[in-house]
Amino acid sequence: MSATISPLAGKPAPAALLVDVSRLRDAYVDLRPDPSVASQRVAFGTSGHRGSSFERSFNEWHVLAITQAICEYRQGKGIDGPIFIGIDSHALSQPAFESALEVLAANGVQTMIAKGGEFTPTPAISQAILTANRDRSTGLADGIVITPSHNPPDSGGFKYNPPNGGPADTDVTGWIQRRANELLENQLRGVHRVPFSQALHASTTHEHDFIDAYVRDLGNVIDFDVVRGSGVHLGVDPLGGAGVHYWAPIAERYKIDLTVVSDEVDPTFRFMSVDWDGKIRMDPSSSYAMQRLIELRDRYDVAFACDTDHDRHGIVTRSSGLLLPNHYLAVMVDYLYQHRPQWRADAAVGKTLVSSALIDRVAKRLGRRLHEVPVGFKWFVEGLFDGSLGFGGEESAGASFLRRDGGVWSTDKDGIAAALMSAEITGRTGRDPGERYAQLTAELGRPVSERVDAPANAQQKARLSKLSPEQVTSTELAGEKIVSVLDRAPANGASIGGIKVVSESGWFAARPSGTEDIYKIYAESFKDEAHLQQLLQEAQGMVDAALGAA
């Protein structure tokens, strides 16, 4: 079991790989989903509904139905404040925005759209919701983010954030999904809609300056005095994403030495290097996709990139190149809890089950409680909202943390703040995150890890998600006694949608992706590479058995 690396991986995207944007947008309108086909129904995964118009999984009817369902959900819950809506730079995001606004206006929803038609990062939506709702108990705001995250250029995505500012929990998305599919089955009867030009000029549609609001507030999260005073030289590659026009205002407002490597926006993302599987994917944690910034590592003290909706980060240092997401999460935890004295003394460290066990060791040394949850940032929302979590991070390079004073900042992933934290760390400590990681592992043990992705269809993913501890009959894992077998998270007892097997110096976890037709096996060893490969081999046997089961 090993994913096949494409011969195109890490190379410039060839013309043959580029999406035909006109065809994609035509398909959005012209192709209608068949709700009797499972793959064409509305389905909220770990982060909203996603799909491609070519495959009839993200089309106009999906967006109209989902938006109407959100309007009805809001009405049923008494959410009558404004809804903040933003889009990323994927080709399907603009037409989806137009469809959504047509429904919002027809339903009389007060809607806040980006000033000047700007792109809007996910964390800017969360920040706007939380700011609007501060000290309020009525007239609460919520939000919509139209993005498929880092997924390929032919993808579209649609997320709903309730008044707590974070990704909606399954009870919310489940209701919206059911109602949206009912509307699809009824040929959109019950969907209210007005023409886009009318919606754009409706009395309920208002512009909001997301850039100014977010950038102005960012100084309450990052210590820019330290960054500016240290003179640290920074580089950023927005990867053509929603935050492309945020970085220059950040540099200007806070007078930091930050160079924007590229401000190019192109819905084909032709400037990207190809990811591991031969697809264009704006994943800042992938060394294949991040070739442009990695090649520039010697020009900057530290450099960073974000994915298309800027909720994920990638950190490139002179000392070690591109950091693995888990490495940087551990560095952030170690730094933040020592340099945020106004945070609650009992603020826990949030991590997903497939994040590095080095974070466990860092938390233990800091004397902080570990809050270990399933994959999905929604599990951190409540803790970040009330301050009982100082930090929440997941293995796929998503994280958020509190304001410097301990108040809530963003309850959704914030790639911008996480990226800029690398500048604060470097400026204050005189060591970049790669050097900080080397010091951590010298003190707490050096893990080696690997994540393997491989194709899996819906039926295979369903079988994998139902693995149970009872199916693990072995008492040993890679030569060591098994300490625990988990199918539920220690922090909240929620299902992890797979299984995690732990020994004294290693672990593996297997779970299907919530957003793509792949499955993922994670493994980590605190011994050596040979032990890691043994972990992966034993994980392979279990996954192969699950996928091969009748």
Automatic annotation (TrEMBL):
Going by the entry's taxonomy, the superkingdom of the source organism is recorded as Bacteria
Organism source for this protein? Dyella halodurans
Cofactors that this protein relies on: Mg(2+)
Q: What is this protein called?
A: Phosphoglucomutase
Q: Which family does it belong to?
A: Belongs to the phosphohexose mutase family.
A Pfam family: PGM_PMM_I
* EC number(s) reported in the record: 5.4.2.2
Domain named Alpha-D-phosphohexomutase alpha/beta/alpha is located at: 42-183, 212-317, 325-441
Any idea which UniProt keywords this protein has?
Answer: Isomerase, Magnesium, Metal-binding, Phosphoprotein
Q: Which GO terms describe its molecular function?
A: phosphoglucomutase activity
* CDD domains to which the protein is assigned, alphabetical: PGM_like3
Q: Which NCBIfam families match?
A: pgm
Question: Which InterPro entries does the annotation name?
Answer: A-D-PHexomutase_a/b/a-I, A-D-PHexomutase_a/b/a-I/II/III, A-D-PHexomutase_a/b/a-II, A-D-PHexomutase_a/b/a-III, A-D-PHexomutase_C, A-D-PHexomutase_C_sf, A-D-PHexomutase_CS, PGM_a-D-Glc-sp
SUPFAM superfamilies, alphabetized: Phosphoglucomutase, C-terminal domain, Phosphoglucomutase, first 3 domains
Keyword Isomerase attached: yes
Domain Alpha-D-phosphohexomutase C-terminal: residue ranges: 487-538
